[in-house]
Design goal:
The chain is of the alpha/beta class and 381 residues long. The chain has helices spanning 42-50, 100-103, 149-168, 183-194, 207-215, 233-248, 271-280, 301-305, 321-329, 352-359; strands at residues 3-12, 15-23, 30-39, 52-53, 56-57, 62-63, 67-75, 87-90, 93-94, 114-115, 132-136, 140-142, 175-179, 199-204, 221-224, 261-266, 281-289, 310-313, 342-347, 372-376.
């Protein structure tokens, strides 16, 4: 017999409604999971504010949310390795597992990927802001008892940073620059340190975020980027060079100016930051394009090509949940705590609208920094 569950569903820009849906018993290879924690992502905010994410338009009521962890409440009859009561994190992108990228181990590039809370396919694959969902057991990961549901929800954005760091091939004792001190940028800085970088610099237009990064150990040095913008392409490139030059004078861990860097994680998608990233990367270095911003940009490609600076795209993640769980569960006291990225918590679907409004802000009413907002639920909400 189907169960009734409540879901938070987007019907249009800023039109969130709590609706009741029916949920069948999990299929043979599925788990039924009571969602306990869901982090709000930039794509969730785009859908909420505009009813679209870039060119992807919501065409039917869509439950948002994809950064989630929860409790197993039912197990499909052919599923092994899980029990009722297990804590799990959900990898919410389901690839076809048959195409060339999937076969070659790059399932994040699968053209038939079904990704929860994305309107890219129709009918849309509903997101995780529901009381319970059925999900393939293959894409669920047990959490150790010491790990909270909120930490489990962080595994999704951590996966993006993990995948970016793998593709960056960070040299030992490298100097790394991160543009953008939001959640993903901070996690990229975290993964750069885990990969052995000797000096991590973080740059953002928001001084509060830069201060958070340095005070909490995510970065060794911070730089507040000027909001100055040019009109012509010549003015824009001149400002980007100025930004790169100014950052290059930042004192590294050695006390000397950092000059050029080995790797840049560009987590803003802002044209001026991508331009500056190219200018500040040393010959043979890499610029990791993590941020999803302006789709068409004017870049100084000769400055990259003539110095063999690689521009590397980063899209979601591949096989990152297991390593992420191990990393967070064994984190030492000397390393930054990714859990500090969660700055605001809202309880229950009934408070979700307030959560979305908070996630769109940089500071709350009391002046406290807003980074990652999560919606928590228990069996009574």
């Amino acid at each position: 017999m189907d169960a009734s569950v409540r879901a938070l569903v987007l019907h249009g820009p800023k039109d969130l409604r709590i609706v009741t849906r029916s949920l069948p018993h999990p299929a043979a290879t599925e788990l039924q999971i009571a969602i306990r924690s869901t982090g709000l992502c930039g794509s969730d905010l785009h859908y909420y504010n505009h009813g679209r994410n870039g060119d992807i338009i919501v065409k039917e009521p869509l439950a948002l949310g994809h950064e989630s962890a929860g409790e197993v409440v039912a197990v499909g009859k052919e599923t092994v390795g899980f029990e009722i009561g297990d804590k799990v994190a959900l990898e919410v992108g389901l690839p076809c597992e048959e195409c060339e990228p999937c076969i070659n181990g790059r399932y994040n590039l699968c053209k038939s990927m079904r990704f929860r809370s994305s309107a890219k396919i129709f009918p849309h694959f509903q997101g995780t802001l529901q009381e319970r969902i059925n999900h393939p057991a293959k894409w669920c990961y047990k959490l150790p008892g010491s790990m909270s549901y909120d930490e489990g929800a962080l595994l999704e954005p951590l996966g993006v940073a993990t995948h970016a760091a793998r593709r960056a091939q960070i040299p030992m004792k490298a100097t790394v620059l991160v543009f953008g001190a939001g959640a993903v940028g901070l996690l990229c800085a975290y993964m750069a340190k885990e990969a052995g970088a000797s000096s991590v610099i973080i740059a953002d237009v928001d001084e509060g975020r830069v201060d958070f990064a340095t005070k909490n150990g995510f970065a060794d040095h911070g730089y507040v980027v000027s909001s100055k913008r040019g009109q012509s392409i010549e003015e824009k490139l001149a400002i980007a060079k100025e930004t790169a030059s100014s950052i290059s004078q930042t004192a590294a861990t050695t006390g000397k100016p950092i000059a050029e860097v080995d790797v840049v994680f560009e987590c803003t998608g802002v044209e001026s930051c991508v331009q500056a990233a190219i200018y500040i990367t040393k010959p043979g270095g890499r610029v990791m394009l993590v941020g999803m911003g302006t789709p068409i940009q004017t870049l100084p490609l000769s400055a990259a090509a003539l110095r063999e600076v690689d521009l590397c795209g980063v899209f979601r993640y591949v096989n990152t949940y297991g390593p992420g769980i191990e990393l967070l569960s064994k984190r030492g006291s000397e390393t930054p705590d990714p859990g500090t990225l969660i700055t605001h918590r809202f309880h229950g679907l009934q408070n979700a609208q307030n959560a979305f409004e908070m996630a769109a802000r940089t500071v709350d009413e009391e002046g406290k920094l807003v980074l990652k907002v999560v919606i928590e639920m228990d069996s009574k909400t």
